[in-house]
Amino acid sequence: MGEVVELVHGAHAALTDAVHALVGLRPDTIQRDDGPEAIVRESLYTELLEARHGEDNGDTFVRSAPASSVPGWTDALSLQVRIDMRTATWWPATPAEPASQPVTVRRLYALSDHPWRPEDVALLRTMTREIDAWVERARTLLPTEIAHTYELRAACPACGETTMLVDGGAGELVRRYVLQATQTAAWCIACETSWPPAQFALLGRLIGAPPITATQQEAA
Description:
Layout: H1 2-23, E1 26-32, E2 35-41, H2 44-53, E3 61-62, H3 73-90, H4 103-113, H5 121-141, E4 150-152, E5 163-167, E6 173-177, E7 179-181, E8 186-188, E9 194-195, H6 200-206, H7 214-219
Parallel strand pairs: 2-3
Antiparallel strand pairs: 1-2, 4-7, 5-6, 7-8, 8-9
């Protein structure tokens, strides 16, 4: 009997780990001008949704990359639809909690929290294999590293703000320059105005940065 209990426990734990890998938040570190900063990355499933819709943000809960560098929405949509449909067959009901999460995430958490029986071990293993495959596919589609984020020490040309207090990730407020940039996007964390790469030269002129030389363009 003990072996059966251990078998169920092991299969259940593997499912829980797979669910977390797909829909759980992920701690990470990014390099800023003043050193490394601990951040929390959104889940792979959330990044798939954002890749599909081409969203972008520069908050403490960050995306792997701005929308201009995420995969085509067709690939993200295909995987997301497969996840949604398959999860609905495993758990047809619509859980009420956590209400802030998409229904697929709620269903996956419900599967993880369900008290599975010995006769369910085969199903548990099947679900775990499929979820693990989704995780690997999502990791293939989405960037694996977060681009270096630069702080531009100038006033935002849209709102005029230069710095603001933000959550530093440990419950403490830290002062940051509002203009943030990577190689693929620039944005203001105060007013949320953003500039694509095609407008980098314009942004540079607006904040008084020296013009980009031909050598710098070639190096980029």
